[in-house]
């Protein structure tokens, strides 16, 4: 026995093993279908970016930048220079960087989506890990409230396709920068007048990012925050009209919503519409999807000014919610299982299986243990356990006739036919799963 200690995964960074990985693949396939129906196209960005992208884009006085990013200084080049790099804690900034860098908006707006891992060094808990996964949708180059509503309706379509029912939608408007500046001054004055009630986080944020104080989870500060000046009272006519237009479209589509004046989101780049989809089934980690409009982010990271809006959902949280709601994904299974009584037949059998797979038939081949292929009884038992609809029996009689016996294992169990190996295409379609 080796004396070397076992190496395990990093805390909060999890292996996704079969059959759980099949649930991920199913979720991703549903997402691709819904995105295609809304004409959103896939974009893939690096998992590592320059740290400056996040400090400039997300805001330096945010929990993500201050406490949670995995950042480091790269090795020095031949000139003694070293770049400051970070694993991406979210992907909107990366999408915007890619859009600006490659001038994707030169011929008009773009609707994009992404899937992939993000990284934050926070305390692992249910549905929230240090390597976690997000799916996001971003519409860039569109200023109208109808695109805010389109993205919300896209998420609603996704919940419907997944079978998720326990959710609610909360909305708010953060207005425009000048409106927030006026509100900010009123917030600072209010909290300064109640400085003795502020906790350490609130005191630290008071002059740097007072809007984030409204999102505090400290029970001792809830009454104070409830009495704070409301941003909605500082919105101008254009901001109010934009927000009302979003609500009217949601109403027309039968989507229930409520305004939450304390909904500010955790990142600095938002303006106008912000929203969250929340469930009561996951305890404290109730937000499963959130986003909003971020019209100034592209210019903020050095691109040409353009409006944008988007959202991101947490894959782990959505999968947890699916479990809570009893939604099951299709169990992956091969269409057929190849039973091989004699190992000497393997070259011919594998030729036939290769031809079947080329016709789109998923076939699992029985594999020996080094001491032969095993009994027919044990092979049929494995065939049944695989979930396959058919067993393909490559016995000596069948092979001598240039045929294979196709035996039903599910519908019409026991029924069997002989099929010619010389013309797989003529009968392969009868094996294909209809799931």
TrEMBL record:
The catalytic activity of this protein is classed by the Enzyme Commission as 6.1.1.21
Matching PROSITE patterns: AA_TRNA_LIGASE_II
Keyword tags: Aminoacyl-tRNA synthetase, ATP-binding, Cytoplasm, Ligase, Nucleotide-binding, Protein biosynthesis
Q: Which residues form a coiled coil?
A: none
Cellular compartment(s) = Cytoplasm
The record's section on SUPFAM superfamilies has:
Class II aaRS ABD-related, Class II aaRS and biotin synthetases
Q: What is this protein called?
A: Histidine--tRNA ligase
Supply the source organism for this entry.
Answer: Ottowia oryzae
What is the primary gene name for this protein?
hisS
């Amino acid at each position: 026995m080796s004396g070397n200690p076992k190496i395990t995964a990093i805390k909060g960074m999890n292996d996704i093993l079969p059959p759980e990985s099949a649930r991920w693949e199913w979720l991703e396939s549903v997402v691709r279908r819904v995105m295609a129906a809304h004409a959103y196209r896939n974009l893939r960005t690096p998992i590592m970016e320059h740290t400056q992208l996040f400090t400039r884009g997300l805001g330096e006085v945010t929990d993500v930048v201050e406490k949670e990013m995995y950042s480091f200084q790269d090795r020095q080049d031949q000139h003694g220079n070293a770049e400051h790099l970070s694993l991406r804690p979210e992907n909107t900034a990366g999408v915007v960087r890619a859009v600006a860098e490659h001038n994707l908006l030169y011929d008009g707006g773009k609707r994009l989506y992404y899937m992939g891992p993000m990284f934050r060094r926070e305390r692992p808990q249910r549905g929230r890990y240090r390597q976690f996964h997000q799916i996001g949708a971003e519409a860039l180059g569109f200023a109208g409230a109808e695109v805010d509503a389109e993205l919300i309706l896209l998420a609603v379509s996704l919940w419907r396709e997944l079978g998720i029912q326990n959710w609610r939608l909360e909305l708010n408007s953060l207005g425009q920068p000048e409106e927030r500046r006026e509100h900010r001054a009123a917030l600072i004055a209010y909290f300064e007048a109640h400085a003795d009630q502020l906790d350490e986080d609130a005191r630290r944020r008071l002059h740097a990012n007072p809007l984030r104080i409204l999102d505090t989870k400290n029970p001792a500060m809830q009454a104070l925050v409830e009495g704070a000046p409301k941003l909605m009272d500082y919105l101008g006519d254009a901001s109010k009209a934009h927000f009302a237009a979003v609500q009217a479209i949601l109403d027309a589509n039968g989507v229930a919503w409520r305004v939450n004046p304390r909904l500010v989101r955790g990142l600095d780049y938002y303006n106008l519409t912000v929203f969250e989809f929340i469930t009561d089934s996951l305890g404290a980690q109730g937000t499963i999807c959130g986003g909003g409009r971020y019209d100034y982010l592209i210019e903020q990271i050095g691109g040409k000014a353009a409006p944008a809006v988007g959202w991101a959902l947490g894959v782990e949280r959505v999968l947890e919610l699916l479990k809570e709601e009893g939604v099951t994904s299709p169990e992956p299974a091969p269409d057929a299982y190849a039973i091989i009584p004699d190992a000497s037949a393997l070259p011919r059998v594998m030729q036939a299986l290769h031809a079947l797979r080329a016709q789109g038939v998923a076939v699992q081949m029985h594999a020996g243990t080094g001491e032969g292929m095993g009994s027919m009884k044990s092979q049929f038992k494995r065939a049944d356990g695989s979930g396959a609809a058919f067993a393909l029996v490559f016995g000596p009689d069948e092979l001598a006739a240039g045929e294979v016996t196709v035996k039903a294992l599910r519908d019409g169990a026991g029924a069997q036919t002989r099929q010619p190996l010389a013309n797989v295409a003529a009968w392969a379609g009868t094996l294909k799963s209809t799931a």
